[in-house]
């Protein structure tokens, strides 16, 4: 049994369907814990990887699901604001930020994340080659550059839990290598957890755990 101090997130008895119950369930009493380091969230097309990340981020109305989510002592059902402040999640499929520039997105992050690290952001901007794109709106960017902006914001949030959805998609090779180096370092972190949803585990990264969803 994992000691409480080594558990970042605890999910117990998650029940969720895209439609009101008794519709077919996407998750049926799913339970797991995330410890510090990197967890790979695997599963085939349609297995629910992105939806699980949205649920873990607190981005889905709590009355549409059953189960308990506890993150560093904050329970999603009881104190959703305290819970969400501890999660870094910028959904690459969400168009809500499309009119914002990268600079505006970065500037808004400290209000939601007490651990926001401007020094780390500068490293990510350099490592992901974002400097020429800071004053472009997201909708003006290629899909790869758009993803890199959201990844840089999530990583610089320095949240207890960082969620990344297919982070390597559409990235150039130098950016993939930079992100893999970051995840390899994150795997050794003693106080934060990262969940990477993708079809394959990130190569060269020592995983703290794996959550694989049935297709």
What descriptors fit this protein?
single chain, 215 residues, alpha/beta, Rossmann fold, five-stranded parallel beta sheet, four-stranded antiparallel beta sheet, 9 strands
What does this structure look like?
By secondary structure, the protein is α/β, with parallel strands linked by helices. The protein has one domain: Rossmann fold. It contains six helices and nine strands; from the N terminus they run βββαββαβαααβαββ. The strands form two sheets. It has a five-stranded parallel sheet with strand order 6-7-8-3-9, with helices on both faces. A four-stranded antiparallel sheet has the order 2-1-4-5. α4 packs antiparallel against α5 (143-156). The chain is globular and about 50 Å long. The two termini are 28 Å apart. The model has no long low-confidence stretch (mean pLDDT 94).
Sequence-ordered SSE layout with sheet pairings:
Blueprint: E1 9-16, E2 27-34, E3 37-42, H1 49-56, E4 65-71, E5 74-75, H2 80-84, E6 87-88, H3 102-108, H4 118-127, H5 143-156, E7 161-165, H6 173-186, E8 193-197, E9 207-212
Parallel strand pairs: 3-8, 3-9, 6-7, 7-8
Antiparallel strand pairs: 1-2, 1-4, 4-5
Helix pairs in contact: 4-5
How large is the count of helical segments?
Answer: 6
Shape: globular
Number of structurally distinct domains: 1
CATH topology-level name: Rossmann fold
Order of strands across the widest beta sheet? 6-7-8-3-9
**How many beta-strand runs?**
9
Mean pLDDT: 94
CATH superfamily: P-loop containing nucleotide triphosphate hydrolases
Summed up:
The chain is α/β, with parallel strands linked by helices.
